[in-house]
Amino acid sequence: MKRNLCFLATVIGCYLLQSTVFQYLQLAHIAPNLLLIVVVAIAYIRGKNEAMFYGLLCGLLMDCQHSSIIGIYAFLYILIGYLAGCCNKLYYHDDYTIPIALVAIGDIIFNILFYVISFLLRNRTDFFYYFRRIIIPETVYTVLISIFLYKLIHYFVTNIENISRKES
Questions:
Q1: What is d(CA 12, CA 57) in angstroms, rounded to the nearest whole number?
Q2: Do the beta carbons of residue 39 and residue 15 sit within 8 Å?
Q3: Which phi and psi angles does 126 have, rounded to 5°?
Q4: How far apart are CA 146 and CA 160, in angstroms?
Q5: How do residues 85-100 score in pLDDT, each as one tens digit?
Q6: Are 106 and 80 in contact (CB under 8 A)?
Q7: What are the strands, taking DSSP E only, across the chain?
Q8: Are 84 and 44 in contact (CB under 8 A)?
Q9: What is the separation of C-alpha 16 from the centre of its chain, rounded to a whole number of angstroms?
Q10: What does each C-alpha distance from 8 to 4, 127, 153 come to in angstroms?
């Protein structure tokens, strides 16, 4: 229960940071995708079922703010949570390279699918411009932020699990 409250607080906190503070910390009009980092971290630590639930929550939050069609972001975050959750079997407590790589791969997949859904279907076919100007810079920015955010999430989850074991 404490872990779920921690994840919920992390999702809400990162959503608020992403939609407020990081809008002012944009680099070349690109902001990091903090919710993607949270979904990948949950997927890597806890597995695909929890990641898909929190992916749905993150996606619905983003859909309510940024999308005129409810479900686009929810679908993308659920998909990323599922794919990253498949790597849960590789989970190792002190390894930070796999989750950082999962964030990079997840961000690229997320943005390519977002391009297909949002732009390509409306006949905007300049993919290489979108890739060079948006996907690559956002992936780099998100990966840099994920180094710190993943360690923070991992620290909280580890401490909560240790406290739960001591209480039992």
A1: 9
A2: no
A3: -85, 70
A4: 21
A5: 999 888 777 788 999 9
A6: yes
A7: none
A8: yes
A9: 14
A10: 6, 35, 12
User: Residue 86, Cβ neighbours under 10 Å: how many?
Assistant: 14
**pTM for this predicted structure:** 0.93
Within 8 A by CB and 6+ apart from 45, the residues are: 88, 91, 153, 154, 157
**Per residue in 97-153, pLDDT tens?**
999 999 999 999 999 999 998 887 777 778 898 899 999 999 999 999 999 999 999
The residue among 64, 77, 68 whose CA lies nearest residue 34 is 77
Of 98, 95, 106, the residue nearest 34 (C-alpha): 106
3-class SS of residue 27 = strand
